Amino acid sequence: MTHSATTHNPAGKPSPGFRGYAVFALGFRPFYLLAGAFSALSVLLWVAEFSGWLGSAIALHGPQWHAHEMLFGYAFAVIVGFLFTAVRNWTQQPTPAGAPLAALAALWLAGRVLVLTPWPAWAALTDILFTLGAAIGIARPLAASGNRRNYFFVALLLALGLANLAFYAALQDVAPFSANSALAVGLDVVLFIMVVMAGRVVPMFTNNAVPGANARRLPALEWVALGIVLALLAADLAGQTGLAAALAAVAAVAHGLRLALWAPLKTRSQPLLWILHASYAWIVVHLALRAAAGLDWVAPNLATHALTIGAIGGLTLGMMTRSALGHTGRPLVAGRAETACYALIQLAAAARVLLPIAVPAAHITGAALSGVLWSAAFAIFTVAYWPMLTQPRLDGRPG
Prior knowledge:
Structural class: mainly alpha
Strand order of the largest sheet: 1-2
Largest sheet: 2 strands, antiparallel
CATH topology: Cytochrome C Oxidase, Chain A
Distance between the termini: 15 Å
CATH class: Mainly Alpha
């Protein structure tokens, strides 16, 4: 890793005190790098366990822990890295960097190790401390700048932390709900974060990059699309599965219309854009499949994986690559590595969701193939982005 001589605050004035590794200059750097490597390795390990290649060895303690680690491990890390970077831009106030950022990254990493041990209480404590540190890391600059518009992100981080705590409590039989219910609520929180951020940036990115695209947002539709996801979250909290399925059907229509207004077909020649549109389309697929699962037409796990692989995997890869390029002083252009990552993650989603629908007997094959494709996508990302995430910006600016 390369050392950076100094850092500056967002306004460009020297800030007192941080001299250190470039990887800890801004939140996206360590968390994107850790999330990418962890995602590639952990899913490959899960495929090996799921397929029986590990024999009687149990590494991830079953599908619930696999789901837990991809949600509260991988997705949470990307969200925190993104918010630390975005909040600094929104507020012109510092977010954790240097030693505090390194400490938070170490907490996250410790949590990922502890879940593999017989001490779940220590894993829970570590994850709680990480959540609190991340929430404080964005709450302080938001409060200092009076940026009330984005206060709700603090609540969303805490909500993710509570869902994580609920998962641990359910596994210890000290909660009146199941671990799967806690996972469902956590996924709803991440879904809400994605639909909020996609609505803010995808039409803007599209209009900026594609002349005449005319990507639009209709205020009434925005309220409906976001509100229905919150209603879905409330239904899951209340354990109302029938109501949740009905809400999902309405949400699929609302978000399908929302995406159509963003002119997705006009982005076909620009990978940095089409990955965002294609991944958002998986949210529509997720919602439609969730409604279908409520009628026993499809297996519920197909809806779940449309969200986790297609939407979460695709949108996080799209945003990680785009923000890393921009915040390291590089042109916003997707090269072969980025395009390969995007294609692989879309194929992974298709193998896990669409292949079993078309050929039900291929369920296990599709799951294993999907895991290998996912791991390949994130391995390429990690290798390709290691240099830019561990070295100072090309233009000499802070971050």
